[in-house]
Design brief:
The chain is an alpha/beta fold. It has two domains: 207 residues, Putative sugar-binding, N-terminal domain (Rossmann fold), CATH 3.40.50.10840; 143 residues, 3-Layer(aba) Sandwich (Molybdenum Cofactor Biosythetic Enzyme, Chain A), CATH 3.40.980.20. The protein has ten helices and 18 strands. Helix 1 packs parallel to helix 6 and helix 2 packs parallel to helix 3. The protein is globular. The chain starts with 5 loop residues before the first strand and ends with a helix.
Length: 374
């Protein structure tokens, strides 16, 4: 009997790419789209949809989730709701909307990512042992995390320790946070999911859920050749982005720092690797930066003699804006470098590669080493 395909939804494009990579790693055919009205394949292909709601207000996020939920055929598809692992976004609004629209009676929400040091223990969220409210996520411009308590950030939820996972079926609460501090904890929670439960959270919980369904990971996919004229685009203002820029400078690679006057021109890349990022100086109207960056990039491409063959994009908002401006609305997964860092090929331009990662992640060393030799 063929495996049931999934429909998964995310609130930004880097999150959508991340879980598409998770499906790909587990041997499931998958497409990624930012088109809410895109046709859902009538075969075994799973579909990941970026609803791009993190930048919207709660009401807009609710309407988009309601709209997609009403298109889902529950008998045919399994479902997963991807959220930010650091609790940013309109999580409560979006999950409650899905519970109202789909035949689930409770959510099992597990945002932990133990391999990246992101764990929930005794009701508190830690990143490599530091309370999340003491990390850079406390300065997030849109969703600052002010407390390490997961229920302080999501007051409508109940946090459930893994030792109480067996009580899941008897709980009367519908909004449950599944605490996890290890991969084994994720597997424990995944084994408890029933058809009446909505699984939600970060990509490691999806991986555990897929493995519980019998989809073992496979690493036989060929690594793409990172071509010359590769361009890093960073719309992230995170410290990781600034550190990557510093490493570019030290290695003698081209670095173009943009301010919001958009006066600088994109260099001709010749055989080299280059990076475009925002300066450390204070920028006006940060909400408009991703869209403005995408439009500047498209204009710059039209003026360059040498086509950029590979875009490596940092930050979900930036990725979504570039995908939209270039009209790359459907993508195929080519390769997953590591969880969260995925290379895609747009259906609309098969000569183009796009590698996407969240702004809070670091670039894999494998990518940086390969590109230095390009």
């Amino acid at each position: 009997m063929p495996a049931r395909p999934f429909i998964a939804i995310a609130d930004d494009f880097s999150g959508a790419a991340e879980i598409a990579g998770t499906f790909h790693r587990h041997g499931l055919p998958v497409q990624v789209t930012s088109d809410v009205d895109a046709a859902i394949p009538d075969d075994e292909t799973s579909t990941v949809i970026d609803l791009d709601t993190r930048r919207l207000n709660p009401q807009q996020a609710r309407i988009k989730h309601q709209r997609i939920a009403r298109r889902i055929t529950q008998e045919k598809h399994l479902f997963y709701k991807k959220t930010d692992s650091a609790l940013r976004g309109h999580i409560s609004t979006e999950i409650k909307t899905l519970l109202n629209e789909l035949p689930f009676n409770k959510v099992v929400f597990c945002p932990a990512n133990p391999k990246r040091g992101r764990i929930i223990k005794k009701g508190n969220y830690y990143i490599y042992g530091t309370p999340i409210c003491e990390t850079e996520f406390a300065q997030d411009p849109y969703f600052p995390i002010r407390s390490s308590s997961v229920t302080a950030n999501l007051p409508e939820f109940t946090s459930l320790p893994v030792r109480k996972a067996s009580t899941l079926y008897s709980r009367t609460e519908s909004l449950l946070i599944a605490e996890a501090a290890s991969e084994e904890d994720l597997k424990n929670w995944a084994s408890k999911i029933r058809k009446e439960h909505l699984p939600a959270g970060a990509s490691p919980f999806l991986a555990a859920y897929l493995e519980n369904l019998g989809h073992e990971p496979t690493y036989k996919h060929p690594k793409p050749n990172l071509r010359k004229r590769a361009l890093f685009i960073s719309g992230s203002l995170s410290e990781n982005s600034h550190k990557t820029a510093e490493s570019f400078k030290k290695k003698g690679l081209q670095l173009l720092e943009l301010s919001d006057d958009w006066a600088n021109a994109l260099p001709e890349l010749a055989p080299e690797v280059a990076m475009v990022k925002f300066t450390r100086q204070k920028l006006s109207n940060p909400k408009e930066l991703p869209r403005n960056l995408a439009e500047w990039l498209k204009k710059s491409f039209s003026q360059c003699q040498n086509k950029v063959s590979h875009l490596l994009i940092e930050g979900g908002d930036t990725a979504a804006a570039i995908i939209d401006v270039f009209s790359w609305h459907s993508c195929k997964v080519i390769y997953e470098w590591e969880s969260g860092v995925v290379t895609l090929q747009p259906s609309e331009d098969k000569s183009q590669l796009i590698t996407i990662k969240p702004g809070s992640y670091t670039w894999p060393k494998d990518i940086l080493r390969t590109l230095e030799k390009a």
